[in-house]
Every structure is written in structure tokens, then in C-alpha cells.
Amino acid sequence: MILMQTRLKYLEVAEKELGAIEFKSMFHTIDNEYYALIEKEVKRGKSINQDVYESLTEGQRFHFNKHYNHRGDKVQKKMIKYNGFLANTVSGEKTIATAREGKFFNGYTTMNLYDLNEGVEGKDALLDANLKELVKHKESLKSGKRVDIHLEWELSEDKSKYLDVHVLKVEVVEDSIV
User: Fold this and answer.
1) Are 42 and 48 spatial neighbours (Cβ–Cβ below 8 Å)?
2) What's the pLDDT score for residue 29?
3) Which residues of the chain, if any, have pLDDT below 70?
4) Domain boundary among 28, 54, 75
5) Residue 39 sits in the same domain as residue 55
6) What is the biggest distance separating any 2 CA atoms in the chain, rounded to whole angstroms?
7) Alpha-carbon gap, residue 73 to 65, rounded angstroms
8) What's residue 16's pLDDT?
9) Reported pTM
10) pLDDT of residue 35
11) Which residues of 102-140 are buried (b: 16+ CB within 10 A; e: fewer)?
12) Alpha carbon 50 to chain centroid, angstroms
């Protein structure tokens, strides 16, 4: 999709397709074509990402800001990816303890082991992804093993919500931290 492709990438693709000599003679036309595609999408109510915005020439950015981004709502901010792991172990006979980065001494969340079933949901997207993966490893937890779920996520702009959470890997460890 054009909104995710930077100006430089668009120009590189055009140069490969046309060849160096023809590309050089059509450079300004192709550059204007790229900006026209961005304008078309923005007029449809879409926004562009930060990388695309930064790839525009100074003049294109000026025009874009003046005509489309005067409220500052047409450029998506870069999202920072975070990653870490949630250590999960059974404390006592039936309580699952979950701690970020395995630091149980900093506090953790708990739930009843017998509530860990298909369709269980966490209070936020991070815990939800953790629980959905734990369902697959319920027997490991019952046998006293620790299950570390390594995750990657983004935070909302106000840092109150986990977004785009992905499980990177799962490790089942023999010894428990708790």
C-alpha cells in the first residue's frame, strides 16, 4: 500500500522498472505522481505513517501540512515496540502466579489453575495473549514447571493499552521461581 511505502522506496522501484536513463528524464513526473497518490489516499480519510511523512521533500511536507495535516491528525506516530516475558508458575496447589520478567518479588497477578481453559480472557491484551498461550501448557504448569511466555507489543499513545501483542516464543523451564 502506498501509505506505507516511502518516497525513496517508490522512486527505487520506478527506477528499476524504467531503467536509469528513462527514470532520470521522468524523475519529477514520478515524484509528483507519488505525492498525488498520497493526496488521493488522504482525501479518502486515510493517514500516512511517520516514515512516509519524513521521506517527503520539504516542499511536499509544507503542502501536506497546509492542506491536509493542519489539525495534526494525518500522520501516524511511530509506535515503539516493546518486548519482555511473563513467567508463569503454580504457587501452592492451584494458583497460577504470573510476573513480568520473572520478578515475583515486585508483585504479580494470580488466577485459579482450574479457571485456565479455552476461551479464558485477560484483563488487558498482554495478559490475554499470555493466558491463551498458557492454555496450551496447562499440563506443564500442573507438573510444577515454569512457563515463560516471551511477547512483543506496542503501547497506545497515552500508554494505557497494550496493542499488537505477539507471542515470540514459549519456554518451559524445569525449576520454578516461586
Assistant:
1) yes
2) 95
3) 1-3, 78, 102-108, 175-178
4) 75
5) yes
6) 75
7) 10
8) 94
9) 0.56
10) 95
11) bebeeebeebebeebeeeeebeebbbebbbbbbeebeeb
12) 15
